[in-house]
Design brief:
Structural class: alpha+beta
Helix content: 10-25%
Radius of gyration: 22 Å
Order of helices and strands: EHEHEEEEEHH
Largest sheet: 5 strands, antiparallel
Shape: flat
Strand order of the largest sheet: 6-5-4-3-7
Strand content: 25-35%
Number of strands: 7
Number of domains: 3
Distance between the termini: 47 Å
Number of helices: 4
Amino acid sequence: MILRPCLHCIYKKDCEKKREMLDGIRGLKLTTASFKCEKRDNAIPPGTRVSYIFKFVTAGWHEWDGEPYENEERVEIAGTTMGIHRSGKLIVWLDEETAKNRWIVKLQPDLVKLLDEPIKKICECCGCPEGKENRKEWFCPMCDKGLTWEEYNVVLKKEHGVMA
């Protein structure tokens, strides 16, 4: 039996809600079931510091003999949770970019390691963790200028005659 919210939950080993759901649907010949679980959604709040081990693989050919090679490297990268995606994965703002130049990723909650650090404040507008310099591709009027989107649109309209 596959219970959708329990698949990658950090509480999957000992959870009353899971046992209650299994007892309720036992004998119905179901293979999967989905339900809303507040315990899982509130388990890792936004701003929690986490780390994840990424696997980087580089492949190519040796210059001297043309033989292929493959190198594998595992790197632990820390980040800050921004929230939970509707799929149940954590949206994490990484402290450093991955090999594919990504700094916002979705990770399964049971595969991340919770760090013993204080919870960071998250921007209400964009979800950016406090204290992070915004990346060059990232713009948020609240983080950059202390404005809401409505106030920023008024400023843009006055200055340039356009809206964001």
